[in-house]
Amino acid sequence: MGVMKTTDGAVDERAIIAAAEKALGEIALIRKEVGKVIFGQETVVEQTLLAVLSGGHTLLVGVPGLAKTKLVSTLGTVLGLNSSRIQFTPDLMPSDILGSEVMDQDENGRRSFRFVPGPIFTQLLMADEINRASPRTQSALLQAMQEYHVTVAGRRNDLPQPFHVLATQNPLEQEGTYPLPEAQLDRFLMQVDVGYPELAAERQILLETTGVYENEARGVIDAAQLQGIQHLIRQMPVSEKVVDAILALVRSARPGNGNAATDKNVAWGPGPRAGQSLMLCARARALYDGRLAPSIDDIMALAEPVLQHRMALTFAARAEGMSVRDVITGLVKQARG
């Protein structure tokens, strides 16, 4: 889908509205299909889908057994993307992810190198328990997420389009984990916290998943349609008021910007990428909700998943038992006035 412009170069609003209405229908179908397989967890499903619709990567944080893997495979099916999964372990090497050069010999005895692509060459990659791998292996994946290509033996190999990583991470208190460095966490558009299901959802899980037959999701769109929606989201208008709200919120989360609570509790705050992420995800949330323009409510609803992995508390705040989420909740309350 190209930029929708009229002959005089102005953005064609009618074309955008027509494309948005088509996208609204597709998103409603996507939500319905995912809901057949993933019970409850509406916020988790919404935030993960918003990240993919915005063209970004997601970090899913939660204890094992909360259907994170099932969510990723379901999204692959519903969005028509080919997908693969890597289980991260301490002995995993970068070449196990990226691929490697192997030597071939033809019938004349001539030898040549051939690149064998690794599991990263897919459209939807599940990186399971990313914090179990060594920093060297983590950075190989995170670099590819940023650059959308892999360099092996000096040769560049482009990744498929679209390319999304949905990484899962166990809470860091568990032993044998390597926390992701701050700069690498910033590569994730959102951090989605996966909690335990509500009682009604857990009852449904028990009843629906322990019989002979389980519901299966079906494909709703394909990769080209997904890229069309991603392109549309970047064209959606954002009012001056919403832009100001994004800037005010992100800047209030940085020490030294006149916010007394932040100065006291925050060691370092979110960079400009946080604002870019809020801008994209707010447009996606509007579309997900059936609207054609984002509101300040979208910004406030997305503050936690977009900001929480991009800031850190001071030692004193941590000692008092505060969490980053507490700080963000306070900033959202102030912003709402």
Automatic annotation (TrEMBL):
Q: Which residues form the ATPase AAA-3 domain?
A: 57-190
What are the alphabetically sorted keywords of the record? ATP-binding, Hydrolase, Nucleotide-binding
Q: Does the keyword Nucleotide-binding apply?
A: yes
SUPFAM superfamilies linked: P-loop containing nucleoside triphosphate hydrolases
What Gene3D superfamilies does the entry give? Magnesium chelatase subunit I, C-Terminal domain, P-loop containing nucleotide triphosphate hydrolases
Q: Where is the chain membrane-spanning?
A: none
Q: Per the database record, which ranges form the ChlI/MoxR AAA lid domain?
A: 261-328
Q: Which GO terms describe its molecular function?
A: ATP binding; ATP hydrolysis activity
Reply yes or no: does the keyword Cell membrane apply. no
Q: What is its EC number?
A: 3.6.3.-
Q: What family does the entry list? A: Belongs to the MoxR family.
What name goes with this protein?
Answer: MoxR-like ATPase
Question: Which species does this protein come from?
Answer: Rhizobium giardinii
